[in-house]
Design goal:
- By secondary structure, the chain is an alpha/beta fold.
- Helix content is 42%, strand content 16%.
- Strands 3-2-1-7-8-9 form a six-stranded parallel β-sheet, sandwiched between helices. Strands 5-4-6 form a three-stranded antiparallel β-sheet, with helices on one face.
- The longest helix is centred in the first third of the chain and has 16 residues.
- The termini are far apart.
- Bound molecules: adenosine-5-diphosphoribose (APR).
- Adenosine-5-diphosphoribose binds next to helix 3.
């Protein structure tokens, strides 16, 4: 077996407590940390993931619901699916994993949170943790939302942003400024990410001593490329995930398990 594969197997087969100890030491010793989260971090809050056993893409076809063509073809279907997701998320609360990452960002300098999630739970954790700690400004714990935010609407014409319209399932409302249909302010398949947002995330990954990756299948680029930027700059990657991913083989430390249980332990916050 080739040495790289042997080395990877040795790393992943280390006892769990040794992996957690190594991850904790890497994070404690880091000056700059970038954190990338995916749907797995919100799973313990009750928000469905995309590719797991109960994942959204097991029940729905993304090309029918999460593309510009789908919205153009059947705006009522796409709008009602997002309204369903909004109502589901409204009943969910941040979990211990969100809170630990918020505390990390509020108590340490040099931490950049980046999320692929559109559920807003990191924002809610930032507000809750800041308020509980008597911290006036939760901003450092607000993540870069590279795939947008489901609780915001964007006009498909003039791009005006507004808070998500109240739960009308009759189809997308019209923009009060230009009359075009509103759509959720999320990035659909085939669309580009906001260059400023992904650019800031990539810069943070290049500068980071440690990239902490939690709850993502590491399949969707450019977000999935962030850990590699840290590795190529000489930094370390810590992965926390229920299942192995394409990142596992190159991660410095890869820990199997629930983000809500592992993150509070290894971030020490
Ligand atoms: N703790 C840690 N990891 C978990 C947990 C948990 N409690 N539950 C699930 N996971 C892991 C799964 O093993 C899986 O690898 O989280 C990962 C979730 O992967 P996906 O469902 O593919 O979600 P994500 O990686 O965020 O998807 C990326 O794809 O469809 C697009 O825009 C969508 O942002 C999304 C992107």
């Amino acid at each position: 077996m080739d040495p790289a594969r042997l080395e990877c197997l040795a790393r992943v087969t280390k006892p769990a407590h040794a992996l957690r100890k190594e991850a904790t030491a890497l994070l404690a010793g880091a000056t700059r940390i970038v954190v990338l989260t995916g749907a797995g971090v919100s799973a313990e809050s009750g928000v469905p993931t995309f590719r797991g056993e109960q994942g959204l893409w097991r029940s729905y076809r993304p090309e029918e619901l999460a593309t510009p063509d789908a919205f153009h073809r059947d705006p009522e279907l796409v709008w009602s699916w997002y309204q369903w997701r909004r109502e589901l998320i409204a009943d969910c609360a941040p979990n211990a994993g969100h809170d630990a990452l918020a505390r990390l960002a509020l108590t340490r300098n040099g931490v950049t949170l980046v999320t692929q999630n559109v559920d807003g739970l990191h924002h809610r954790a930032a507000r809750d943790v800041a308020s509980a700690a008597g911290v006036s400004d939760p901003e450092p714990a607000h993540p870069l939302e590279v795939h947008g935010a489901i609780h915001r609407d964007r006009c498909s014409g003039c791009e005006r942003l507004t808070p998500a319209a109240a739960g009308s399932n009759a189809g997308p409302p019209s923009c009060v400024m230009c009359g075009s249909s509103l759509r959720p302010d999320v990035v659909w398949f085939g669309e580009s990410l906001d260059p400023d947002v992904i650019g800031s995330a990539q810069e943070a990954a290049i500068q980071a001593d440690v990239c902490l990756v939690a709850g993502t299948s590491s399949l969707v680029y450019p977000a999935a490329g962030l850990p590699d930027l840290t590795l190529r700059s000489g930094g370390a990657v810590v992965e926390v995930n229920l299942d192995p991913t394409p990142l596992t083989g190159s991660a410095t430390v890869s820990i199997r398990g629930q983000a809500g249980e592992i993150l509070p332990e290894i971030v020490g916050a």
